[in-house]
């Protein structure tokens, strides 16, 4: 027999999470804040990504029309992000997928990833690539469920055990929730 949900769980589920494109310069401080949380979250140092220069030039490589940067909002606060950047005419790279701990366990990671896949298709890309650190097991499970396959790296990542994955966007059905 299923236990009834606690009141706080019901309230937590009832708060709508909205995913929308970041607006610059209005969202700059929010984006830098959540990106800093992302780079501080793994047990390894991500200094090889040269993220300080990335933050200083935002939206930079994430600017439309070739890039995208999505933010997830809940009760007026940013709780997640996902971005993409151009690799070549047909390929983009998914970057900076992060859910703040307070919003985990609600399916938001899957929603953000499928939303950024839709954005990639809309931008005209036929393939999306990414790298995922070995400790990000929840993200790996989502990528596996969506059909991502091992692929050659499109960016430098020296962390042992990192998985390099890609997905053919032409064969992926559109996101019904979009």
The counted number of beta strands is 7
| Average pLDDT score | 88
Structural class: alpha+beta
Number of contiguous helices: 5
N-to-C span:
34 Å
Please mark out the parts with pLDDT under 50 across 5 or more consecutive residues, or reply none: 1-12
Approximate strand percentage: 25-35%
| Major sheet description | 7 strands, mixed
Radius of gyration: 16 Å
The strand order across the widest sheet is: 1-2-3-4-5-7-6
The shape is globular
Order of helices and strands: HEHHEEEHEHEE
| Percentage of residues assigned to helices | 25-40%
Description:
The chain has 178 residues and is α+β, with helices and mostly antiparallel strands. It is 29% helix and 25% strand. The chain has helices at residues 7-14, 28-40, 51-56, 108-122, 137-145; strands spanning 17-21, 68-74, 77-86, 91-99, 127-132, 149-150, 163-168. Strands 1-2-3-4-5-7-6 form a seven-stranded mixed beta sheet, with helices on both faces. It is globular. The N and C termini lie far apart (34 Å).
